[in-house]
Amino acid sequence: SEEMLIQTEKLSIAGQLAAGLAHEIRNPLTALKGFVKLMSLSQKGQSKYLDVMESELERIEMIVSELLVLAKPQASVFKRRRIEAILQDVLTLSETQAILHNVQIQPEFAEGLPEIDCDENQMKQVFINFIKNAIEAMPGGGTLRMFASLAGQTHIRVRVQDEGTGIPKEQLAHIGEPFYTTKTKGTGLGFMISKKIIEGHNGRLEIASEVGVGTIVDVHLPLPEQD
Ligand code: ADP
Ligand code: MG
């Protein structure tokens, strides 16, 4: 609808602005971080204020680096790729984090899946975000299942399923809004960025969640058109 179109346009202008701002903020931030570090070294850990400053600066840095990703999707490079190979790379990257949080990752990739046209780095970013969220939703550990299969004749479906806290209904509607987070150390940007990338691939994102049971994130990605 027209309303949605305006929304999307607003978001992309906001995204460009945010990315520009992030660039501007990065240099002074690096200088600040350096001096705070120097000060805390010379105080030999005596000032708790400096520790707070350091961790708050790290938080700003995290937000800024996630915002910078918003500037990148313009430079998409689409190539024909096996999604299982990309997911396998992502699993390797996520292994340490999973072990640290007592999470066991179980991949189930169907055999003989057709290749899709995608930007490999962007796809990795998407699933790194979803896996990170799944791990963070299971503070006591658990099993994270990851599926890849055909969805009808036209799409591949990748599913990330956790046994975590789940998402209350009233929160579900807000997920993917810029800066919406329920975590003290969250940025609230991961979902928005992932959604943007998936839309850039003409794909679709679905979340199903039940409090106390877990969350399922489904990504549908179109197969290349036959000709
Ligand atoms: P962040 O992880 O920095 O908070 P995201 O955009 O990745 O930002 O996620 C936004 C919010 O969505 C999270 O703060 C959390 O409340 C919710 N969320 C996302 N994924 C899950 C999940 N797998 N289980 C429970 N809650 C989730
Ligand atoms: Mg996240």
TrEMBL record:
What keywords is this UniProt entry annotated with? ATP-binding, Kinase, Nucleotide-binding, Phosphoprotein, Sporulation, Transferase, Two-component regulatory system
Q: Name one GO molecular function term.
A: phosphorelay sensor kinase activity
- Enumerate the Gene Ontology biological process terms: regulation of DNA-templated transcription; sporulation resulting in formation of a cellular spore
The residue ranges of the Histidine kinase domain are: 20-225
Q: What is this protein called?
A: histidine kinase
Which species does the entry assign this protein to? Tumebacillus flagellatus
From the broadest rank down, the organism's phylogenetic lineage runs: Bacteria, Bacillati, Bacillota, Bacilli, Bacillales
